[in-house]
Prior knowledge:
Structural class: alpha/beta
Strand order of the largest sheet: 11-10-9-8-7-6-5-3-4-2-1-12
Number of strands: 12
CATH architecture: 3-Layer(aba) Sandwich
Largest sheet: 12 strands, mixed
Helix content: 25-40%
CATH topology: Rossmann fold
CATH class: Alpha Beta
Shape: globular
Distance between the termini: 39 Å
Number of helices: 9
Radius of gyration: 20 Å
Amino acid sequence: MKKPTTAALLIIAVCLFSLAGCIVPQKPGRGACLYQVEPVTGRGYYLYLPDDYVKHHGQRADGGRWPVMVTFHGMDPWDTAGRQIKECQQEADRYGFLVIAPKLDTSNSLMQYPLKDPNLSYVKRDERAVIAIMDEVFRRTNADPTRVLSTSWSCGGYLAHFMVNRYPERFCCLAVRQSNFSEHLLDPAQVPKYRRMKIGIFFGENDLPACRNESLRAVEWYRQHGFYVEAKLVEGLAHERTPQTAAAFFAASIGVKPKSPPPLGDLVMKDVVPDGDRFRTVNPGQSSNGAGSLPGYSMSGSSDRNIVFGPEQDRQPSRPVSVVPAQPVRRNPPTLHDTTGSTPTPRRPIVPYRF
Length: 355
C-alpha cells in the first residue's frame, strides 16, 4: 500500500484539529435519499430526490425537469459522499434540486496533495465514474441535463473544477465551498467552451490555509481567463460547511426561486476584488477604496495585473446539450436500497425508470 505523502499527513493533522468543520450540522431533508451503484463502473453514489419530487412522482407543475447539484466530497474519512448528500438535503428541498454525491477514489488521505496530475489512475477512474453516474441519473429520473451545478467542499474542489473544465457541456454552473484548486488540472484550450459559465467561489476568513489560498488562486485563474467570478470571503468562517452559498448562487444563475428564505442571514460575505498584485475584500456595494487587504496571498506569477471581468452580456450560463430524455413514470419501480439500512426496501413510484 502506498504511504501517505508528507503533505497528506500535514492535512490530516490539520483536520484532526478541525473536526468541528467535518461534522454535518445541517438537518436531513424531507425527500428520499438513496444509495445506488452505477452498473458499468461499479461506483457507488448517493442520490437525493427533493420532497416535491417525491410528492409529485417526479413531475413538475410547469412540465419541466429538475435541476441537479453534483457535489464532490472532501478527504475521506473527514468528509464522504454520505456527508455531502446529508448537508445538501435542506437546500435541495428549498429549491427543488436533485443531488448526486459520488464516492470518489481521489479524495482520500493517500491522494497526491496538492493534486497536480490529471492523469493519475484514481483521477481517471473518478472522471469516468462521475460521467457514467450522471448519465444513469438522467436516464432514470426527470433530471434536467441542461441545468447542472458542480460544487464541492474541501479537497473535492480539485475534481469540481476539473470536471467542469473537461466536460463544460455537461454543467451550467460552478460554485465551490471552502475548496482546493489546482490550475495544473485545467486545460486552457477548453476555456472558450465555457467562459460564459457563472463561477462562484466561497471560502472562510479563517479557513484552512491551503483551501483559503487556493480559493484565491482560483479567483485569479478564472479572472485572468476572462470569466465573471462571484468571489466571497465569509467573515469569521473556518473550515465549515456552507451548502447554502452554492445552492443560492446556482438558483440565482438559473432563475429558480426558493420556497423559503435561504439561511444566509448569519453569513457576513465580502466581495474579493483584485488590488495590484494582491486581493482585498469589500462589503457588497462598497467602493474598493479603503477596503481591507488579504495578507498572506499575492498573485504570484501573474503577468496581467488588470484582471478581466466578463462583460455583463456574457454573464449567462452556457447551455449543455441534452443527454437522454427521461421516460414516463413507471408505476411498479424496482427495489432500491435506502440509506437508513442495508436491507432493500420497496419504494413508491417516485422515479421514472428505463431499463
